[in-house]
Amino acid sequence: MVSYVFPPPPVAALPIKGSDALFPLRRIFCVGRNYAEHAIEMGSDPTREPPFYFTKPADSVVINGADMPYPSVTKSLHHEMELVVAIGRGGRNIAVADALSHVWGYCAGLDMTRRDIQNEAKKTGRPWDMGKGFDKSAPMGLLVPAASVNPAKGKIELKVNGKVTQTSDLSKLIWSVPEVIANLSELVELAPGDLIMTGTPEGVAAVVRGDVLEGFVEGVGDIRTKII
Fold it and tell me: Of 101, 131, 132, 199, which sits with the fewest C-beta atoms within 10 Å of its C-beta?
């Protein structure tokens, strides 16, 4: 019998639409600058350079509808609306043509960012971890099975206090969902429970306490959270 020096932490998990079952989370990978317009607004070249990744802890997820606390040590908390891919079958060196068979489902999500901390890290050549992977930095909606979703197209949009701030289409992803899965699986062996946040369109902006964020991905679902 295994003995621990203190009780293990609870398993981070996402609720599934129409089910009492939960999807257990392992790791969260995020694709940087995967929409051309967002790359431009962040001062980068939107050409198809190889995708790059950063991570968030699995327990940074805020379940749909729950409040998100405004994080410490920042004066510039930004929203980034994204399609999230949930891996159900792992693998290494996955072919693009086979990539979608590794997907269990999808949800709408927010990559919340301490932009001032991230920008300072960029200037000094340091990691982005504390700008991206802080506590409660990943609000996510209900997970829906892959069979009901076409990740190649569909509207993606975010409203802050009822005003549209981000709107685009999944067809504008620089690297498609199958291409991202294939590329990432060359760098790490993907496993069931991994999430991939696929990038955000243009229109990222700061939010403050009291703001209500409501987003959706067409054919996938909604995400809602209030900054407190």
Answer: 101
